[in-house]
Amino acid sequence: MPQACRHPGVRLAERYDAVIIGGGHNGLTCGAYLARAGLRTLVLERREVIGGAAVTEETVPGFKFSTFSYLMSLLHPKVIADLELRRHGFEVLPASDMFAPLPGNDHITFSDDIGRSQASFSRFSRKDAAIYPAFDRYLGEATQIVRRLLLETPPDPSCRDWRSFRDTAKLLWKYRKVGSKLFRLIDLLTMSADAYLSEWFEDTHIKAVLAYYCGIGTYAGPRTPGSAYVIMHHIMGEHAGAGGWGFVRGGMGTISQAIAAAGRAKGMEVRTGVEVIAIDSDNGRATGVTLADGSRIMAGIVASNVSAKLTFLKFLKPDLLPESLLRDIRTYRTYSAAFKINIACERLPAYTSFDAATCGFAYPTYTHIGPTIEYLERAYDDAKWGDWSREPFITPVAPSFVDDTVAPPGKHVVHLFGGHAPYTLAQGDWDSRKPDFVKTVLGVLDRHAPGFSDGIIDMQVLVPPDIEAKIGSPHGHIFHGELSADQLFFARPAPHWADYRTPIKGLYQCGASAHPGGGVGGVPGHNAAREILRDRRG
């Protein structure tokens, strides 16, 4: 509570042990862990709703949209267990196997059941179907290594101080048995998705099923070097369902609300509609934050869940930071081409190529429209020159098929996530051209599900500038920055500052700009809290 005033009209700053900037799921996670450890913790959120990209909003009356993120996959089991999220309302509903309509009224499906995937693949290539289990094991072994790395704090291998040397040595010893599998990680980090998959598969439809993930949220095509890693990033979830995906009852905001409830149960405070404009410091140590109304909140620990660009380039004076760090943050790549269209509708898409008996599930709640490697690459080619994709890849998902809380009886919610829609258009601007863009996207969907557009009640259209304006993610990038070799682990978001700390003592990074990156996983928040408590213990 505010302290008593010593002089009329002057309010002294409030004091907390820790202040978290940004009430996204990572900020809430960090705050919940700190509160659980006994720290008096305050989370500040600029918007009126908590959750950042993991929110549920009733943008159209009666319809609850998962406005930004739309499926649960990466939320770490440790976070779920530690914070007892199921006790606070977190419940995952299964999505169907992935369904991909193809030209000629055909389709291909992909499942976490290897046999079902093989059966579908065999219609296109018996060779590819036969080798798929070996590929799954091969990729799975590399994925297991990266899953273990998720909870690591990246050391600085270039530092000569004893603590950095010790941390690097411990990491190397811990992973000494990786051996030849190290080269599998190098392949994933350097090869294009197409080149990587072509070492195993021959059919373009099968390769597209797996390469599709490389474009989700990234400014890349399947033939972009390094895009193979993004395939693995999207399948690292350790939960039931196709590729680990599922819907959250009540929408993605339920995750954020559950984390907030867990934190509040330990004394964490959360305030919305509060904008931070500066991080305060004195003699190289964080002292709190300044708000837009001019008031201050004092704390010896400040954790920033907002992007690294905002944290270092907006909230701090440049003379407080090393020039090398400022350069690395300025050049940290955040350009985005992802779009999201949230639709309230009378009926779900009726795909002409879907047959429940053939596919083995009642309805394709999780769909990929991106039939070939060539299709996916052309979608990127269009964006590369500053226009939206003439044939965009689209992920239509239908949560209302399994979740009766997000739409009125007999009505539905459909989310369309896809690419590419460049942040900046070469000709015109998004304000004037957005209606034509929407026609392009819906035209592709209607080709596979005729008449769907006729049943639209209302919609919300989000292109990268809209996403940036709403949640502050630079250029609307859903991961806060590209998932590329030079922006991962030791170097995320910048070399020498990947351990969640900053040059300002007591100031930490706890958002998606830090290791391991974006996705609703809670790992940056978890790891940052661990390092904060480690420093606090000395």
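(the above was protein one; protein two follows)
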Amino acid sequence: MPSPFRSVPHCLWLALSCLTAPYASPGANDYPLTADSLPQPGVPQGKIVDGTYTSTGTLFPGTVRPYSVYIPSQYDPSAPACVMVFQDGKGRANEWKVPIVFDNLIHKKEMPVTVGIFVSPGVVPTPDNNTNAQPRFNRSFEYDGLGDRYARFLIEEFLPWVTSQHALNLTTNATGRAIAGASSGAIAAFTAAWERPDSFSRVFSTIGTYVGLRGGNDYPTLIRKTEPKPIRVFLQDGSNDLNIYGGNWWVANLDMLSALEFSGYEVSHAWGDGGHDGKQGAAVFPDAMRWLWKGYPAPIAKPMGNSHPLSKILIPGEDWTVVSSGHGFTEGPAVNERGEVFFSDIPKGRIHQVALDGKVTVFVEKSPGVNGLGFGLDGRLYACQNGTQRLVRYDSQGTEESIIENAPANDLIALADRGYYTDPENKKVWHVDASGARTVADEGIPFPNGVVASPDQTLLYVSDTRGWFVYSFQIQTDGSLRYRQPFFHLHVPDAATESGADGMTVDTEGRLYVATSLGLQICDQPGRVNAIVPKPQRAWLSNVVFGGANFDELYVTCGDKVFKRKTRAKGVLPFQPPLRPPTPRL
């Protein structure tokens, strides 16, 4: 069978497996290898199997890549082995002396029995073996970009194939799975663990490209804001690393260390005066492995630094728990004065009630296309019933009453003497006065979705699903809206053109909680994202509300489920008297 690489010169593949060109730095110290990186007498040697993988999936279609598998002599197929994935293939692994180091450390029981998988970045060969054309080199696309594409490639496609191809028994528990790389391969390794800490918990990063090539410069900010994840990270870099158009590698790695320490991560580092090469990385590799694997098989704990903004909101040890599951698509959580939470299942046209004891029952069996919900001062539940294009309300027995006909609506808020609802398809926000009369309060937001008021009820916030902002309006005494501004600046996932901002809620401190594609983004009163709580599952995060007897339980609707977690924060009921929040730090 002809090789799929025949149009790619063999020397090019050697370059691809260690693509970061050495950067000679005058005066840089040498970094000699220790005995751990040299063959030792009496130490059994593992075997290495080489292969080629042609992508069968849609993540990196048309790519082919060489790979190698290191299998330690102690490997027992009857027991799941640990696994460590190395970017840039066999060339990088040999530079770090990985097979030798693994032989020595596994023999001394200083790390667990670990299979090494050395995988190169993908290349799309030229069509019809055209020798006058260049292949498409995927390295920067696969490695430098943020988001979960490369992690999914490893988890969903490549690792299962390698496992099957070589009849390997590898653990699927993140505690026994590590990932490593240098330069662009380093940020690829970190990104895989960052996006999927359920699959990788240990990261070895040398001369990492955390700079402005494809958004890697955002990581220090995201690390400081996002709820810390159960991963352990080792960083290496030298003060003579690259300083080019994308940024300063040395400064970027210092920023990564500072951010990880700020957020309370288990992080270690080895700084030197080397350049963009693998010398120091190879020298520190054995000790880095000892540190990364210390305490195995105990899982890596989820950290939380005292300085992290979420330390004032989240409670250590409290995580998302499932409240209700098996729904079509959950939305519109609303809370009554007792703290009971109600939510809608749009495809099934039902409204469910969550009692204070956690019991979930059907409150309304048939409410076609029901979406946003909100309680009013009268104790009734108001709903956007899109199946009939009406606003309706329900009494305590679930008896329905129509309020407004011909009202396509997505979400609503009921204040004591007025209400507002969003009309995304027509780009409008509507005001409804105490008599039930409605007027257009605003139009022109590309996709107005979630709507909520500030605790003092002087500001109205409207999320824009298709943009990067939540808009702020000042509520006038007659209910009209003035002074619209794209006020709350949201983070957007890599490769996305919109935030996915949906439902929102506020707490007594004046913080705004926004359900977005990236997770639950928490903003301060001046409009800045202070913190990000990842989604409880990989599904659309549609809405959020505080509930429970003390209004300190955060409920989110996410795909087919509803989740909650206890917090230090406390929610606000919009139909009760206004509450003045503390003066914010500007």
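Reviewer note on protein two: The two ends are 67 Å apart (CA to CA).
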